[in-house]
Write a structure and sequence with these properties.
Blueprint (H helix, E strand, L loop, with lengths): L5 H15 L22 H6 L2 H19 L11 H24 L27 H18 L4 H4 L3 H36 L1 H9 L10
């Protein structure tokens, strides 16, 4: 029988991923954006696709409830150590991202840009690594793979065509995150160094790690 214990996790995961993929501010002016080719499809459209997280959450929750009322349906949705760790990673990633939204305020946009009154943010999560929003996204994305595609998850256990389509729809969102990170990190460092000069160089000495403390 499906586990009711999974229900709160389902909605915490959906809310956390919604936070990771939300658009905290309008796009910057075109002249403020850096020339950067994004992978797969524009990031702003990718962020708007977060509705898929809620669709999967509702379908999985409904499947658990139906299984409890009619066990003959054969659903096998339950928590595992892997899915719990994945959920915790997603929530941790969302927390980091939200702290970045707060620290940068109106300067945080999903487009890479140097805005008219741009300031170099060095407090909060930016005192730990230089690109903490990508750290949060990286952690949450790894967690999402563990949550959505491990044993006992809806996308792993479903035999329906609709469920498989949802799985195929989510994969590009997660995979593209890894491809985007590398090009964005380099481009942002270059642009910030050019804009702020010695101030950026001093910050880079104080905060030498780009993504993961003590590693990279």
């Amino acid at each position: 029988m499906a586990s009711f214990a999974k229900l709160p996790f389902i909605f915490f995961v959906a809310f956390s991923l919604h936070t990771c993929y939300k658009l905290p501010n309008p796009p910057p002016a075109k002249e403020e954006r850096l020339d950067l080719t994004e992978n797969f499809f524009p990031v702003r459209y990718k962020m708007k696709a977060k509705i898929l997280f809620w669709v999967v959450a509702m379908v999985e929750a409904l499947s658990i409830i139906i299984d409890a009322l009619a066990p003959y349906t054969g659903n096998l949705l339950y928590l595992t150590p892997t899915s719990i760790i994945g959920a915790m990673m997603i929530m941790a990633g969302a927390y980091i991202r939200n702290e970045c939204f707060t620290a940068m305020g109106p300067m945080f946009t999903v487009e890479v840009s140097i805005q008219k009154n741009h300031k170099l943010i060095k407090h909060g999560p930016y005192s730990v690594v230089r690109h903490p929003s990508y750290t949060g996204q990286f952690v949450a994305t790894l967690g999402a793979f563990m949550w959505y595609f491990s044993q006992g998850s809806y996308l792993r256990e479903t035999t329906t065509m609709a469920g498989r389509i949802l799985g195929v729809a989510l994969l590009p969102m997660f995979i593209s995150s890894f491809f985007i990170l590398g090009s964005r990190i380099n481009k942002e460092d270059e642009a910030l160094k050019e804009k702020f000069g010695v101030e950026w160089e001093n910050w880079a000495l104080d905060v030498p790690y780009r993504l993961i403390p003590l590693i990279y």
